[in-house]
Amino acid sequence: MVDTLETQHAEKTVYHPVSQDGAIKVATRAVNVLYGDKHAIIDVTADIPDRAVTSLIGPSGCGKSTYLRCINRMNDTIDTARVAGSVTIDGEEVNDRSVDPVLLRARVGMVFQKPNPFPKSIYENVAYGPRIHGLAATPDELDEIVRTSLEKAGLWDEVADRLAQPGTSLSGGQQQRLTIARAIAVNPEVILMDEPCSALDPIATARIEELIDELRENYAIIMVTHSMAQAARVSQMTAFFHLGKLVEYGPTEEIFTNPRDQRTQDYITGRFG
Amino acid sequence: MTEPQRDIRQAVRRRLARRHRAERRFQAYGVAALAAAGLFLVLLLGSIAIQSAPAITQHKLTLPVEITAELADPRGDLSEASLRRGSYNTLIQNALREQFPTVAERAELRELFGLYSGVNAARLLNRVASAPELVGGRVEFTFPISDDADLYLKGVTVRERIQPGLAPIAISAEDTDRWRLVSDTPVFAEILVETRQALSVEAAGLERRRDDAVERAEAARDEDARRAASATAERLDAQLQRLRIQAQPDQALQLGPTTKSVLVQVGDGVYRLTGIGADGASASAQRLIGEVSAGAVSDWRLWTVLTPPTARLISDRQIAWARALSDRGLVENGFNTILFTRADSREPELAGVLGAIIGSVLTMVITMLLAVPVGVGTAIYLEEYAPKNRLTDLIEVNINNLAAVPSIVFGLLGLAVFINLFGMPRSAPLTGGMVLALMTLPTVIISSRAALRAVPPSIREAALGVGASHTQAVFHHVLPMAMPGILTGSIIGLAQALGETAPLLMIGMVAFIADAPALGFGGFTDAATVMPVQIFLWSSGAERAFEARTAAAILVLLAMMLSFNAVAIYLRRRFERRW
Fold it and tell me: Which residue of B has its CA nearest to A102?
């Protein structure tokens, strides 16, 4: 079925030359996802660079989140979802049967749209990942991981004296930084963010954007966003999705200043979306 | 404002009043429903509490009992075996005879010994057996008085009136058991008038019934019916004539078992009037209890027992004895500890709910150990792991159907499978608990699944996102969050099982169990009963005293339910996490 679809959608994605300074971290080839009968994404092929922020933009329901969930195989948790095509991280096939999704998700952290800390203490929220993966041999090591993760997420100064309080007692922006700390505590290579700021106020958003910019130095970050301003501010690469297809992909500057596809042009100038 | 805008506003305003009215009406319905529910709850609890009042206290008799060696220790060696062969009931009987030395006739003695239950002798035996040095001495032995005497002393079953004698009376013997009471003033006139009034009311009723019978006889088509009706009419007519003669003011009044009992108390002695002279100043009487006291007395009491002997289970003589024992300070009304420290008994005064409470606790332990882990496990599997296909759909539909199956069907299943096929003990908490677990399982599964489904998916995603396996996500995050709901559902299911009677009927837990099951592992296979079944059994008990005990047992069961629910609320608070 996927083969026939491939021929149906003959029109090809517009690629800008990908900047050569970053190595390719994630590569997807002809990725298709079906939710039951609904063809959510069609033949998405893209190379995502390491140590950079890649934004996925596009109108609601265009398949950006679905594409994001292909990278850490979160679509496995949906009974009706079927995934075809190839996703590789550092050249390793993600969809291979031999790959354990649990191990994969330790390598690919995820931050969700709505801040979703566990209803446990702040410390436990961050310590949970390292603990189930056995990353710390002693309690002191675990304390250290929690501390550095919170520091990297820029939350340490605010919560250092109340680590035992429930994570849900924090403000929305703090909660989202907590979930980022939780994601980086297991030392992933890629961080997926699904509209991480859409539930936050502008000040908290600015804080998270700063954080994302800092994290870029160590991780490949792939972020879904509805805010074109945010994509322009934070990301180095931008991909525009429309109706399940990757329409245009390239360095952010070029997408925003010199889009080659009419649909991209219309979207970023606010004519639809 | 433009014309169309004004029209819209008016239309909205017109509808607005109606919308507000609808809202107020709906709120009023809600308040009315709540008020009605509250009223019925108060009525229910109030009526149960009032009905149970006579069972909360109990009259106990304390008698000095002489432990004579020949009766208590027939072999004379003070050995346990010898003591256990003693006639301890005779000792209690002797102690009671000591109180009323004039009682000699067999029939009268039987009446006297009807004031208590012979079962009490076992307690006296145990006391003496554990302290053989008591043989030959006297002990103060306290035991509950019979249920009929207890209810009489509480004023529940018998209405009576005690007045001081108006004028001195002279008592003289007519023959061996007939006495004559004469006064120079009509001291019995009031009773005469009252009784005659009652008689004429009764006569009016009889007359109506006779006239009905006569009419029936005239209207009857066949010979048999006519003859039966006229026989009834004749019988009623005869009764009516007798009553009319009695009710005539110039006739002496005969008092019998269907009229109220009129007693005259003189010191220790009590006389029962058998007839009152037409003048109201003289009467014939029988001596019920006490010493012969012929002569003139001025200090006497007129004691009218308004409830006629045929309408009560305690005789005039027993009333007189009970009152005499009470006057001597030998009877004390105290908290009914027996109700809470003993198992069931045929004698209401010795019956308690302890056996049923232990039975209920043991049964609930089995039900909980089976239904909760199996039910929650099933719910987790179905909700989190099972593929969604025809088979799981079928299973789900059947679980929902099982929740609606009448509970007695589970009892039949238990009888057929557990008892007949597996040969498990009947009437045992183990079997009962298993049957109730089957009944509770669907409730636990359905509520646990609902609780698991209510956990926001973001929690699952968060756990999976940091690399938790499916099982870790379920057990570390989803299950703890669903715990309050699971606990609430499980406890509702268990509370339902606690109040269940029907399935236990089938497996023989409706039995008279006079011994409480052991509180321990052995208890699970002992014959036992449970609280609702105990209530069911008592509610059909013939003795009047079981009525109050039924209500008291209902209160105990309600208290058990409430404490169950209190535990549920506590656990829910404990496990609840803010989200």
Answer: B467
Q: Using CB atoms, pick whichever of A102, A116, A120 lies closest to residue B461.
A: A116
3-state helix, strand, coil split of chain B in percent (to 5) is 60, 10, 25
Q: pLDDT at position B463, please?
A: 92
Residues 6+ apart with CB under 8 A from B555: B48, B49, B52
Q: Are B181 and B238 in contact (CB under 8 A)?
A: no
| Chain A residues touching residue B387 (CB < 8 angstroms) | 79
For the residues B96-118, what does the mean pLDDT come to?
Answer: 90
What is the per-residue DSSP string for B293-327?
--EEES--EEEEE-S-GGG-SS-HHHHHHHHHHHH
Q: Is A31 exposed, middle or buried (0-12, 13-18, 19+ CB in 10 A)?
A: buried
Tell me: the pLDDT tens digits for A33-90? Answer: 999 888 999 999 999 998 899 999 999 889 899 999 999 998 888 888 899 999 999 8
Residues A116, B458: C-beta atoms closer than 8 Å: yes
Assess B458–A contact: CB distance below 8 Å, yes or no: yes
**Are A127 and B476 a contacting pair, CB within 8 Å?**
no
pLDDT attached to residue B410: 93
CB B411, CB B503: distance < 8 Å: yes
Residue A96 has pLDDT above 90, yes or no: no
| DSSP-derived secondary structure for B245-274 | HHH-TTSPEE--TTSPEEEEEETTEEEEEE
Tell me how far apart the alpha carbons of residues A55 and A249 are, in angstroms, rounded to a whole number: 10
Locate all alpha helices (DSSP H) within B454-539, ordered by sequence. Answer: 457-465, 470-472, 479-498, 502-506, 531-539
**Sheet containing B331-335: order of strands:** B138-144, B57-66, B331-335
CB spacing of B466 vs A117 below 8 angstroms: no
> Which amino acid does the sequence have at B82?
S
- C-alpha B323/C-alpha B319 separation (Å) is 6
Share of chain B above pLDDT 70, in %: 99
In chain B, residues with a C-beta closer than 8 Å to the C-beta of A186 are 466-467
Helix B88-99 vs helix B121-130: angle between axes, to the nearest 10 degrees?
110
CA dihedral B49→B51→B53→B58, nearest 10 degrees, is: -140
B461 interfacial to chain A (CB closer than 8 Å): yes
A170 CB-contact burial (10 Å; exposed 0-12 / middle 13-18 / buried 19+) = buried
Q: How many CB pairs under 8 A join A and B?
A: 74
In a 10 Å sphere around its CB, with 0-12 CB exposed, 13-18 middle and 19+ buried, how is residue B209 labelled? middle
The residue in chain B having the minimum alpha-carbon distance to the alpha carbon of residue A130 is: B466
Cα–Cα distance measured from residue B309 to residue B158, given in angstroms and rounded to the nearest whole number = 10
DSSP A189-249: SEEEEESTTTTS-HHHHHHHHHHHHHHTTTSEEEEE-S-HHHHHHH-SEEEEEETTEEEEE
The residue to which tokens 């008799």 are assigned: B61
Per-residue pLDDT, averaged over B169-197, amounts to: 86
- The confidence band for A20, taking pLDDT boundaries of 50, 70 and 90, is low
Which residues of chain A are within 8 Å of residue B458 when distances are taken between CB atoms?
A: 112, 114, 116
- Residue A74 with chain B: CB contacts under 8 Å: 461, 464-465
Residues 6+ apart with CB under 8 A from B266: B171, B290, B293, B297, B299, B300
pLDDT score recorded for residue A111: 93
Contacts of A114 in chain B (CB under 8 A): 458
Reduced to 3 states (helix: H, G, I; strand: E, B; else coil), residue B432 is: helix
What average pLDDT is seen over chain A?
A: 87
Q: Which amino acid is at B450?
A: A
Lookup: tokens for B172: 């003289």
DSSP letter at A168 equals G
